[in-house]
Design brief:
- Chains A, B: It comes from Paraglaciecola psychrophila 170.
- Chains A, B: Keywords: DNA-binding, Transcription, Transcription regulation.
- Chains A, B: GO terms for molecular function: sequence-specific DNA binding.
- The structure is a homodimer.
- Chain A folds into two domains: about 10-50, Winged helix-like DNA-binding domain superfamily/Winged helix DNA-binding domain (Arc Repressor Mutant, subunit A, Orthogonal Bundle); about 60-145, Lrp/AsnC effector binding domain/regulation of amino acid metabolism (RAM) domain (Alpha-Beta Plaits), CATH 3.30.70.920.
- Chain A is built from five helices and five strands; from the N terminus they run αααββαββαβ.
- The first copy, chain A, has helices at about 10-20, 25-30, 35-50, 80-90, 120-130, and strands at about 50-60, 70-75, 95-105, 110-115, 135-150.
- A four-stranded antiparallel β-sheet of chain A has the order 3-4-2-5, covered by helices on one side.
- In chain A, a hairpin with a 5-residue loop joins strand 3 and strand 4.
- Chain A is elongated.
- At the A-B interface, helix 1, strand 1, strand 3 and strand 5 of A face helix 1, strand 1, strand 3 and strand 5 of B.
- Chain A binds a DNA duplex (17 and 17 nucleotides) through helix 3.
Chain lengths: ~160, ~160
DNA sequence: GTTGAAACAATGTGGCG
DNA sequence: CGCCACATTGTTTCAAC
């Protein structure tokens, strides 16, 4: 991945798409003050350079039956690469999992999940996490609310 | 927010857009087996019902000078609504902040941030967090790696 | 829920600063 | 070399069914 410095226009494009990834090219072009063709060229370039890695929908998990969200801190007994990799790959596939962070520090993983109710949460923690031999410690914290940052300046 | 039950097609549309929010309507329609017009109608409906709350770009933070990502656990001294709200609103505006979670449990907030280097991290923690009178305890953990879940079944 | 036509956006080419 | 204008192709969108 090259380290091309991004100019103001690139940042403006990224900021626009960060706020609304479904914005169309014509509107972005207008917003950043470029002709549509030029703007598209830049977006394509950012994509090919993997500065833009994709785009994800913000779904209302509640509408999908996920009435509670939690962060689960997990410590493993064994920190070998295979254990970590296997754990990570298998857990990321579970439908309850929104994100799985591999961490440095006391806890090895932080798991962001959406669950239907507290019973579902209990079952999930037991069946998917504490049932695993390599898991040493689990701590669940409820998420009340999430706010996303809006901008990406820093250049 | 109404609680209309989503059918298989709605879920399929959401799943497609969750994987790639920039997918166009024609391709989604084809994928889920609908005519483009019908598919668009459903997407519009999901948007107006706020099942779809938006879409966010997956940016390579490294390309933007964010070489490290951290999760910072924060405890406040005072849990009044005003203190919490003010803290949340002000911190969410900082350019380093990716997400800010208001939590139940021991820690009041979990802050996901992207920083240029360790010095930037140190300054950020001091200036933006520990410098605040209402902050009681701060704990920073490095993120090695993040995996996002791929599907949203659960209906 | 579909089809089809008109309106609009995406995209490639060639030309300008 | 990056930008723009324009022409072509493809997508969105709305009406009638």
């Amino acid at each position: 991945m090259s380290k091309r410095p991004l100019d103001k226009t690139d940042i403006a494009i990224l900021a626009a798409l960060y706020k609304d990834a479904r914005m169309n090219n014509k509107d972005i072009a207008e917003l950043v003050g470029l002709a549509p063709s030029t703007c598209l060229e830049r977006i394509k370039k950012l994509q090919s350079e993997l500065v833009i890695k994709g785009a994800q929908l913000n779904v209302d998990f509640q509408a999908l039956g996920g009435n509670i969200q939690v962060m689960i801190s997990i410590r493993l007994a064994d920190h070998s690469r295979t254990t970590i990799n296997t754990f990570q790959k298998q857990l990321a596939l579970l439908p309850e999992v929104i994100s799985l962070y591999h961490m440095g520090g006391e806890n090895d993983f932080l798991l962001h999940a959406s669950l239907g109710d507290t019973e579902h949460l209990r079952d999930f923690v037991f069946n998917a996490i504490t049932a695993r031999k390599e898991v040493n410690h689990v701590e669940t914290a409820l998420i009340y609310d999430q706010i996303n940052g809006t901008v990406l300046p820093k250049v």
